[in-house]
Amino acid sequence: MDVAERIEHTVLGPRTTRAEVTAALDEALRYGMRACVPPCYLAAAGEYAPGVEVTTVVAFPHGQAMTEAKVAAAREAYEAGAAEIDVVANAGHLLGEEQAAYRDDLAEVVAAVPVPVKVIVEAPALSADQLRRACEAAVEADAAFLKTATGFGAGGATVDDVEVMSQYLPVKASGGIGSWAGAEAMFAAGAERIGASAGAAIVAEYREATGVGE
């Protein structure tokens, strides 16, 4: 298992600066990680660190942008160099029993770009039945991944949620993962990727614990 390549070193937030993005990219380069940055810094990230696969977010963190706006944002992100796109699903549609609208919103984003799209379902805010319906909709929308949470909602990744979600699609566990022990638990539960602002610490702890990559 190449842990570093499965970590998306993340710097997202309402006050994220260019300097913070640059610092995260430096760490991604040092440790061999992927990165996840705000869309406004995509082009600069590509110029600064062309060797890093960079993901960005769409309709983050609430997911309630109009579908047309999500589609346009996804296309602009792809054109700016995004290797993958994490789109926030519209939980209001799911909670309001508008399953088709929930699915179709995602399907249009997926169809708009030729790169993998991860669907952020905000699992901590969903019941067991709602989570399964969200996963089913992502599959029907032809998404490449499911992602547990934005990290700005009701909670973060849990082993139980990852175990359920991994039955449907590859999972990016995100939200509240700050150590190798936490990341290892998510991998054991079935996660393929980890999204974390503590990516550098996770990889460093993994290497110290295993001697791999030193």
Note the topology:
Blueprint lengths: L6 E4 L7 H14 L2 E3 L5 H7 L5 E5 L8 H13 L4 E5 L2 H5 L3 H14 L4 E4 L7 H13 L4 E3 L11 H7 L5 E4 L5 H10 L3 E4 L2 H12 L4
Parallel strand pairs: 1-2, 1-8, 2-3, 3-4, 4-5, 5-6, 6-7, 7-8
Helix pairs in contact: 3-5, 5-6
Write a compact overview of the structure shown.
The chain is an alpha/beta fold and 214 residues long. Helices cover 44% and strands 15% of the residues. The protein has helices at residues 18-31, 42-48, 67-79, 91-95, 99-112, 128-140, 159-165, 180-189, 199-210; strands at residues 7-10, 34-36, 54-58, 84-88, 117-120, 145-147, 171-174, 193-196.
Structure description:
- By secondary structure, the protein is an alpha/beta fold.
- It has one domain: TIM Barrel.
- It contains nine helices and eight strands.
- An eight-stranded parallel beta barrel has the order 1-2-3-4-5-6-7-8, surrounded by six helices.
- Helix 3 links the parallel strand 3 and strand 4.
- Helix 5 packs across helix 6.
- The longest helix has 14 residues.
